[in-house]
Model the fold of this input.
Amino acid sequence: MNMKTIVTIVGARPQFVKAAPVSRALSSVFKEILIHTGQHYDYGMSEVFFSEMEMRPPDFNLGIGGGSHGEQTGRMLIELEKVFNAVKPDCVMVYGDTNSTLAGALTAAKMQIPLAHVEAGLRSYNRSMPEEINRVLTDHASDLLFCPTQTAVQNLSSEGIRRGIHQVGDVMYDALLHNLALARQKNAILRDLKLGKGQYALATVHRAANTDDRQRMSAILDALGRLSLPVVFPVHPRARKMMGEWGIPAGGNIILIEPVGHFDMLTLQENANCILTDSGGVQKEAYLVGVRCITLREETEWVETVSAGWNSLAGVNKEKIVALFETWFPTQERKLLYGDGHSSEKITRILVEFLK
Ligand code: UD1
Done:
């Protein structure tokens, strides 16, 4: 019997992490063709993830990094259409909320190829975020919507999407269970930084609303510099560019480092006293490894982490960030919010049924 062909589209750092466990599960029943749009292209933002996750190199790399949103997305559409014409996929899979997600979704929808969205139904209800537009449009074009949480299912339902929805849990939890064990064996970053468990905070900032706004970025760095512990801050290329352009200093105890691979990141997360971030994935990983998280945004898609008492929204309010850091410590037990670690297998089984 001929194997059905699934085309997987990735492009940005978190998508390499999410696609890895799903690819492993798909490999026994499908032929998978992996397309990297090239949205992230630095070694430390892309290749290191492929080698750590033991993913085979992409079958196609479109080399589309940088540029404005329209230019980036438009060039992806042109190139994806060519590849889809050549490989004739039975289904296209996209992940999360980036420009690569939207480009994959639009191309599949226009070519009437069944579309599956992993991490469907997430909403911040902030339409000024490019990611929010990407999520909404992708969900409305999808045939299969793999939701990580009940909240995500409800969000879709309130937008009138009721077909093709499957609550499967979160593939990032699958990924975490697999990678944390490896990270614990392999890692040396804490030794290199001369830091021990609980002796530092970890910060990441990459959302355009923060990095591209001088006042917000200055407020974040100012607050981080006032914390009573050293702050390890792996700097995303977008943040580095803007900090350089504006000459925003990183004072106090801030330790600026290059973006780190996934194993180093997991080690830094698991051993931190506190995580301060504007990333969605990092908020969730903080919860999963049991570290308190201060979110440098006004709202979050991962609302369960807040109601569970492990995540606090501080925006870029300096006083609030410092006060939370010094005085707020979660007390509630952590429940399993993101599935049972077998989301990838569930997705595979649903795809098999769907493509019969
Ligand atoms: C993108 C996603 C965001 C995701 C994030 C993960 C969109 C709209 N945003 O944001 O949802 O959470 O990835 O990191 O898709 N750059 C480099 N080297 C790289 C990658 C990027 O220098 O390897 C530069 C780009 O040229 C650009 C800037 O960083 O100037 C931003 O990159 P871009 O891919 O537009 O978006 P991210 O900010 O990474």
